[in-house]
């Protein structure tokens, strides 16, 4: 055990070793755009490069990690994400799941404990394509699609630590949020960008020089791939290059989408306050829907138990104060799909 590793570690989930946990904690943040990024991570953690690559292979194969590679923010390139929900009869749940998941535009899909019991995210290169996907789902399933497009993003950055206690609402220093820039011009994707997205949207190759391997697929150079990924990171089209964990396999068995009915004149101020809490992984303003949905502020909370998440929700209620008139927590009970962005027609 390294001398800087705490001796009073939280008990690790089954199948995750100490060195796995150190790697998972580190790679949820970022992978550098260097020539041999795994060697750089290995040097930082006191491991060997082959050991890092082998462990990542195993963690992905076993389902501890769901993806590893660039995480795209397609709205920064003129696209759109739409959170949508269905009310699916129990007897049709498997059928409807297959129909929804068949669309490449569906990036995530979760079963949640609510009357609206299927919640999915549509991601597409244009708003028109995203709304067309919602229409196709409605036509295929015969069920109304309740769409809640993002009106404002306050924070996105999932981090589920294994080797340190998870932060709690109001107990950790607030994080600084990026400046809100609603009029920022989107990045126009080039043909090379679209080829690069298509080549990496399912993950980076787990080899010593992953960017060179991607470059060979595109008939380019490793330097060109690294440079463009760095530019897309700076532009926000790529949020980060990182590992995406399976919440459940890391011991975070309770994952609640907390939703809040906040007075419209206060929602942006309180959304920024809520998004600044390290315990919140995603925080957005979304539209209400008359007769269906009263909530306009969404925040994801994670914990090892439902009681833990519900206690965090009560802390959020105190934080929001009297401007919040009601709230609910929709727990996920199954991951139905989690792939991230997929281009429908990548350029050859």
UniProtKB/TrEMBL annotation:
Pfam family, one: AsnC_trans_reg2
Gene3D superfamilies documented for this protein: 3.30.70.3460, Winged helix-like DNA-binding domain superfamily/Winged helix DNA-binding domain
Organism the protein comes from: Ottowia beijingensis
This protein's name: siroheme decarboxylase
Catalytic reactions of this protein: siroheme + 2 H(+) = 12,18-didecarboxysiroheme + 2 CO2
Top class in the EC scheme: lyase
Alphabetical UniProt keywords: Lyase
UniProt pathway: Porphyrin-containing compound metabolism
EC number: 4.1.1.111
Domain Siroheme decarboxylase AsnC-like ligand binding: start-end pairs: 82-154, 249-337
Statement: the UniProt record of this protein carries the keyword Lyase: yes
A GO MF term: lyase activity
InterPro entries: AsnC_trans_reg2, HTH-Siroheme_Decarb, NirdL-like_HTH, WH-like_DNA-bd_sf
Domain spans labelled Siroheme decarboxylase NirL-like HTH: 20-65, 193-239
Similarity comment: family membership: Belongs to the Ahb/Nir family.
């Amino acid at each position: 055990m390294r001398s800087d590793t705490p001796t009073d570690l939280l008990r690790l989930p089954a199948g995750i070793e100490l060195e796995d946990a150190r790697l998972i904690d580190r790679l949820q943040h970022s992978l550098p755009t260097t020539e041999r990024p795994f060697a750089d991570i290995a040097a930082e953690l006191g491991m060997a490069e082959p050991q890092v690559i082998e462990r990542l292979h195993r963690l992905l194969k076993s389902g501890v990690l769901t993806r590893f590679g660039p995480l795209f923010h397609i709205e920064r390139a003129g696209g759109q994400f739409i959170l949508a929900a269905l009310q699916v009869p129990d007897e049709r749940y498997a059928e409807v799941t297959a129909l929804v998941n068949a669309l490449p535009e569906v990036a995530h899909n979760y079963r949640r404990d609510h009357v609206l019991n299927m919640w999915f995210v549509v991601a597409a290169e244009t708003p028109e394509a995203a709304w067309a996907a919602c229409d196709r789902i409605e036509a295929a399933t015969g069920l109304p699609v309740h769409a809640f497009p993002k009106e404002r993003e306050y924070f996105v950055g999932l981090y589920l630590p294994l080797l340190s206690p998870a932060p709690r609402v109001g107990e950790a220093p607030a994080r600084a949020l990026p400046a809100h820039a609603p009029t920022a011009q989107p990045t126009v994707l080039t043909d090379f960008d679209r080829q690069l997205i298509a080549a990496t949207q399912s993950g980076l190759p787990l080899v010593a020089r992953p960017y060179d391997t991607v470059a060979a697929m595109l008939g380019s150079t490793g330097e060109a791939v690294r440079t463009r990924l760095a530019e897309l990171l700076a532009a926000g089209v790529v949020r980060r290059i990182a590992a995406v964990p399976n919440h459940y396999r890391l011991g975070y068995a309770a994952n609640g989408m907390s939703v809040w009915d906040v007075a419209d004149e206060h929602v942006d101020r309180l959304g920024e306050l809520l998004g600044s809490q390290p315990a919140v992984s995603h925080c957005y303003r979304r539209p209400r829907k008359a007769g269906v949905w009263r909530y306009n502020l969404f925040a994801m909370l994670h914990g090892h138990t439902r009681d833990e998440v519900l206690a965090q929700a009560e802390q959020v209620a105190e934080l929001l104060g009297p401007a919040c008139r009601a709230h609910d927590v929709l727990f996920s009970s199954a991951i139905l799909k989690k792939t991230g962005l997929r281009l429908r027609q990548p350029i050859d």
